[in-house]
Amino acid sequence: MLVYEIMMVAMAAIRANVLRSVLTTLGIIIGVAAVIAMVALGEGAQVRVEQQIQRMGTNVLTIRPGQQYFGGIGRGDTQMSVDDAVALRDDSNGTLEVAPEITSRIQITYARWNTNTQVFGTWPEYFEIYDHKLQAGRFFNQGEVQGRRRVAILGYNIPENLGGQDPAALVGQTIQLRGVPFQVIGVLEEKGDAAWIRPDDQVFIPISTAQYRVFGGRDRINAIYASTATPELLNQAYGEIDRILRRQHRIRPGEEADFNIRNSADLLETFNETNQTFTLLLAGIAGISLLVGGIGIMNIMLVSVTERTREIGVRKALGATRRAIMFQFLIESLSLCVLGGLLGVGAGIGGASLLTRLQQWDTVVAPESIVMALGFSAAVGLFFGLWPAQRAARLDPIVALRYE
After folding, report:
1. Residue 73 pLDDT level (bands cut at 50, 70, 90)
2. Is residue 163 left, alpha or beta, with left meaning phi > 0 and alpha meaning psi from -120 to 50?
3. DSSP secondary structure of 64-113
4. Which residues pair with 181 in a beta bridge?
5. pLDDT tens sequence across 374-389
6. Beta-carbon-side half-sphere exposure of residue 55 (alpha carbons within 13 Å)
7. Are 36 and 370 in contact (CB under 8 A)?
8. Selection from 183, 128, 177, 123 nearest residue 153 by Cα
9. What is the pTM of this model?
10. How far apart (Å, rounded) are the C-alpha atoms in residues 201 and 167?
11. How far apart are alpha carbons 87 and 6 in whole angstroms?
12. Which of 142, 152, 245, 282 is most exposed by smallest CB count within 10 Å?
């Protein structure tokens, strides 16, 4: 029997039981759709974080206090001060752009409006490091930092939170931070979320003002940000920062540092590893549906062999070889799985698009996931269709013709 004729016979057998064929492929459809949707969610999350990291800057290092231990017991974070930032700025020979940070969430009031948000005390260099732009007003300068001036720069969303004020009109007005009056000197352009940082919902003031006028003489800072001219200089900057801060904190060579240095590339790598693990886990769970669907395919193919025993006997009596019979049933099984895979791909893409529209989740349907899902569904069809096909091919024609 020619290959084309075998394929036509197989297709005719599938069309003869359309409803049963559709129900049989349901497991494959669900499995493939789940794989496509889960991988799309993982890819979308990865792309979004990469974009956020790019907005943060790929040449930015974050230095934070480390854990302090005594007798193997953690005693909390060690302390870092503005003096550490000054040392990094002055002793790095101009290779580092440095900005310390002190932050707390406090109440902001303007006229009859108020909002609770994050207030950052920092240096003017912070805005260069993170490439912030102004839509109105100006940045504060180092003179205002040294003079502990009560000036503030608002994030993009703050005017809206304070009664929907016009940003330009808000410049020059007075707001209160914990009851302390501050003059608004600038409003930032929209930046968008950058990983865990939300600059659009923050207020920026000189760090000296934050320490002595708002946060009650608090000397320790939360972090120091340092940037290099290019990402290629990061490794050199690591060594420079480590050397300077060890000297500042009187840490001997070989002793464990009491601070941590991280960059956005490290954060991205960590996130990607975690994201890939969860994506593979979700895809693996979805893949179980494909195996369940494959068992359903094998079950229905065994039923089909039993139902068509006399037909198989007639074909063999007319000269059909074992190979032809086996090929026919394999084609049926493979066709059911590939058809289910194609329907599943459509359902998966539609599901990913629906998640984006309804839940605002970022999804990216990767061509590799489509190829993988279709390839796996075809493999399932071949694997689970092999036994029914062999069983049909081994039927004795005389016994098959006598079967009622």
Report:
1. very low
2. left
3. EE-EEEETTEEEEE----HHHHHHHHHHTTT--EEEEEEEEEEEEEETTE
4. 176
5. 888 888 888 888 888 7
6. 19
7. yes
8. 183
9. 0.63
10. 14
11. 81
12. 142
Per-residue tokens: 316 = 């063999």
Residue 399, φ and ψ in degrees, nearest 5: -65, -40
Tokens of 219: 């000397």
**The residue to which tokens 């490794």 are assigned:** 235
- Tally the residues of the chain: 404
Distance CA 92, CA 49 (A): 31
| pLDDT number for residue 181 | 95
Reference 226, options 194, 191, 200, 264; nearest CA is 264
How many helices (H) and strands (E) would you count in the chain? 15, 12
Q: Report the candidate in 224, 239, 232, 223 with the shortest Cα–Cα distance to residue 265.
A: 232
pLDDT > 70 in the chain, percent: 84
Rounded to a whole number of angstroms, the CA Rg of the chain reads 33
Fill in the DSSP letter of residue 251: P
Alpha helices per DSSP H over 109-227 = 125-129, 142-146, 158-161, 167-170, 207-209
Q: Are strands 202-206 and 73-77 parallel, antiparallel or unpaired?
A: unpaired
Per DSSP, 61 falls in state E
CB atoms within 10 A of CB 232: 9
Q: Name residue 206's amino acid.
A: P
Q: Which two three-digit tokens encode residue 202? A: 């923050």
Whether 173 has a pLDDT exceeding 80, the answer reads: yes
Largest CA distance in the chain: 105
For 245, the 3-state DSSP assignment is helix
| 203 within 8 A of 170, measured Cβ to Cβ | no
